[in-house]
Design a protein that fits this description.
Oligomer: single chain
Radius of gyration: 17 Å
Helix content: 25-40%
Number of strands: 10
Strand order of the largest sheet: 3-2-1-4-5-10-9
Number of helices: 9
Structural class: alpha/beta
Largest sheet: 7 strands, mixed
Strand content: 25-35%
Shape: globular
């Protein structure tokens, strides 16, 4: 991806989640079915780091269930983090995931995290280079026997969501400067906004996992009316 386009898309999504954080959070008050399925697999004595925690609902649910180990959520959106702060027993920090490798030492725990999650977040990160920097940092932060659990939006599976795809000219980006699978989507709640998202294939995620020295151990589709709007995967570090 063209570097100028990368910077433009990062700025676009920052502006979106800071401007529409409250209205976005209002649409995310219930956990997705796929996230609920993941919840049942997490013991209450393992440490959990949630990257792109949003309004904190996932970690809040773990806390309510009596989780006994460290729970840390990070996100760059202050409006979302303000909602998240109401979760008891959970620590939240403002972190720009595009700079995750820079601040990784501040997030490290002795022995590494047992579980790192990243729900509906990686698809908002432009460029393979930045994604790999994040994923390689995840590999450093997680313990050798730990799990990295992520989900990515499969918006092309929905006719309704496909109708929200907008031309790149709306944000002064040439289509030749972006990568295959990159899209510009509009937002229609609490005002009109635009945000960037990438549609991952299973093969693309497999390649990213290998380059980050991890392997895919489980994969399933969930969420939405058709049960196919979220692609969930579990990755394990290669030791």
């Amino acid at each position: 991806m063209n570097s100028a386009a990368t910077e433009r898309l990062l700025k676009l999504n920052h502006e979106f989640y800071n401007r529409f954080g409250e209205s976005f959070s209002a649409t995310r008050q219930r956990l997705q079915p796929g996230v609920k399925k993941i919840l049942e697999t997490i013991p209450n004595d393992v440490s959990v780091l949630d990257l792109g925690c949003g309004n904190g609902n996932f970690l809040r649910e773990l806390s309510v269930r009596g989780h006994k180990a460290a729970l840390l959520g990070v996100d760059f959106s202050l409006p979302l983090l303000r909602d998240a702060e109401s979760a008891p027993g959970v620590e939240f920090r403002e972190v720009d995931l595009g700079q995750l490798s820079v601040v990784s030492e501040q997030l490290a725990v002795v022995g590494g995290w047992d579980v790192i999650t990243m729900f509906a977040t990686l698809h908002h990160i432009p460029s393979t280079e930045i994604r790999l920097d994040i994923l390689r940092t995840v590999r450093k932060l997680i313990k050798d026997g730990g799990k990295f659990i992520l989900s990515n939006w499969q918006f092309l599976n929905s006719e309704k969501l496909r109708s929200r795809i907008q031309p790149w000219g709306r944000v002064s980006i040439n289509e030749s400067d972006i990568d295959e699978g990159d899209y510009l989507l509009d937002w229609r709640s609490g005002g009109e906004g635009l945000r960037y998202a990438h549609q991952f294939s299973v093969e693309e995620l497999l390649g990213l996992a290998e380059q980050a020295e991890m392997r895919v151990t489980d994969s399933f589709l969930s969420d939405g009316d058709g049960g196919n709007l979220g692609l969930y995967q579990v990755w394990a570090p290669i030791v």
